[in-house]
Amino acid sequence: MINQFRKLNPVNLIFLLAYTFFMRVAIFYETPAHLNFDFLEPFARLLINVDLDNAFSAQTNIFIAAVLVYVQALIFNRIVNNHNLLGKPSFLPGLMFVTGTSLFMPFMTLNPALICNFLLIWIIDKFLKLGKSANSINTVFDIGMIIAIGTLVYFPFMGMLLMIFLALLLFRSFNWREWVAGLVGFITVFFFLAVFYYWKDNLSSFYQIWKPLGNKFPSVFKINYNDYLVLIPVAVIIILASLQLRENFFRSFISTRKSFQLLFFMFIVAIVSFYLKPNFRTWHFLLCVPPGAVLLAYYFSNAKKRWFYETLFLLFVLSVQYFLFV
């Protein structure tokens, strides 16, 4: 299967679509009785009053989520290939993206993190273009606005603001205007939101939006480790990918090295930003999928022994299906 997706063959569009629904067999087999879809954060509903909580049946919810994942995988695959992160074009990024979004049942439903992944993929593309642009102030401003829009959908997405400064450190020489542009872009969106709150004579509620920023990072975690055994194959592949990347690191283009460093930091930021939401759900970690999928794709793109990487991927898929059913 890996060998098939190593080729940039149009027939893989059909295979990827079939694979997307195959990985969701478990949730279609055991469809929950009811699924909520909180499209926006409560503080944004005063501005955009769209109630989709009970708009879809459970089956429709899952089906739409699968279609969105497929579309995201295609966009993501194109961006990774355009920036030549794997050295040669393939459908592996899309394949790994779909696999990553199928690790847990909550990943397979409509949720704010799934919607934010469209924005995350978009800003990944813009980040990777920073080093190729003579004047990136407009790009950084746009990224700030995109992050603000994502924050309206899912508050922890605000953590991606940190990525603006990390990206500028990696790709650009210091220019204070670029550093300020991202913050101005972010503030612009919330300035208009504040004006709307003021117009509605509800400015005190606007201040409540920022209370989660005062949360202390949790020191104790209640984790049922059996629920996360499926991550063992992921960890094995990431370790192999890291070794492969280390071996080729100094033989890669400088822009490629910086791109992988950026994606690594994005992966970490996506994980730790959960503390911005006191009652976060497992689907929060969908934000880790785009940067993580590039690393997984890198391993399978550069692995040499076909029998090993094909067997490894097969075991990975089977373990995901096993834990989803069990």
Structure description:
There is one protein chain. The chain contains 14 helices and no strands. The chain has 326 residues and is an all-alpha fold. The chain has a domain at 2-37 and 51-132 and 227-325. Helix 4 (58-82) packs parallel to helix 6 and helix 8 runs antiparallel to helix 9 (176-199). The protein is globular, with a radius of gyration of 20 Å. The model has no long low-confidence stretch (mean pLDDT 84). This is Beta-carotene 15,15'-monooxygenase. Keywords: Membrane, Transmembrane, Transmembrane helix.
Provide a compact summary of the structure.
This protein has 326 residues and is mainly alpha-helical.
Strand content: under 5%
> If helices are DSSP runs of H or I spanning 4 or more residues, what is the number of helices?
14
Q: State the total count of DSSP E strands.
A: 0
Q: How far apart are the termini? A: 25 Å
Mean pLDDT: 84
Radius of gyration, CA atoms, in whole angstroms? 20 Å
Pfam family, one: DUF6427
Protein name: Beta-carotene 15,15'-monooxygenase
InterPro entries: DUF6427
Keywords: Membrane, Transmembrane, Transmembrane helix
